[in-house]
Amino acid sequence: MKQQKNADKNTVEDRDLIKFLLASVTFFFIGTVHGVLQIQPPIRAWLDSIGSPYGGPGHMIDPLAHAHINVVGGVVILCMAVTYYLLPRLSGQPLFSQRLVNHTFWWTTLGICGFYSTLMVFGIIEGNLLLQLDHEGVAEVHRLYTPIIAVVSTGMGIGFWVFFINVLVTAKTIYKN
Ligand code: HEM
Q1: What is the pLDDT of residues 92-122, one digit of tens each?
Q2: pLDDT tens digits, one per residue of 51-84
Q3: Ligand 1 within 6 A of 63 CB?
């Protein structure tokens, strides 16, 4: 009976926010495993030998991939869900668009998946080529990296901007009324 009452209070829209929480927990898990692995002596020595944290392929893995999977995947996606949950409750106004809530989720989540995996895959490939002193190979692979990282970064950026638009248009209706 108590559970049913609670469920009724949560709108169908709120259920759309569950996936944000699950994604945030998943990205924190990946980010923390990444963090523990990158400090293990053999891995740490390998990352240092390919430029981490200052530049080159090592920098792509630590700190770029590690920082973004935690701050964007873990923190920002959680903040998006909290904002979408609290704003209608604090203002008494519904969100401008529920469709934009789902667009926020999918662009940001697929964006950070693409951003992280691109940094990791190219960081490892270019790092190993660098250790073989194959500088031409590194340059060749990096030519492929540049457009891919630009596309996934833009996807992630669209997730942020859709979120900003949805919140700001909702804010406009709050202060207009
Ligand atoms: C669409 C979203 C974002 C994109 C495309 C993006 C992209 C980047 C790129 C390309 C760099 C590396 C610059 C370099 O070569 O040194 C960078 C660095 C960094 N970003 Fe982001 N970023 C985004 C969002 C964020 C957010 C929301 C945060 C924090 C809340 C963040 C925290 C950082 C930090 C801490 C660094 C510096 C890492 C270091 O070198 O120590 N980023 N970001």
Answers
A1: 999 999 999 999 999 999 999 999 999 999 9
A2: 999 999 999 999 999 999 999 999 999 999 999 9
A3: yes
The tokens for 108 are 């940001």
Domains of the chain: 2-176 (1.20.210.10)
Q: Whose CA is nearest to atom 4 of ligand 1?
A: 153
Q: Which two tokens stand for residue 150?
A: 């630009």
Q: How remote is the CA of residue 153 from the centroid of ligand 1, in Å? A: 10
The pairs formed by 77-82 with CB atoms below 8 angstroms and a separation of 24 or more are 77/20, 77/23, 77/24, 77/27, 77/105, 77/108, 77/109, 77/112, 78/20, 78/21, 78/24, 80/20, 80/104, 80/105, 80/108, 80/163, 81/17, 81/20, 81/21, 81/24
Ligand 1 and 67: CB distance under 6 A: yes
Residue in the block written with tokens 């951003």: 115
Q: The pTM is what? A: 0.90
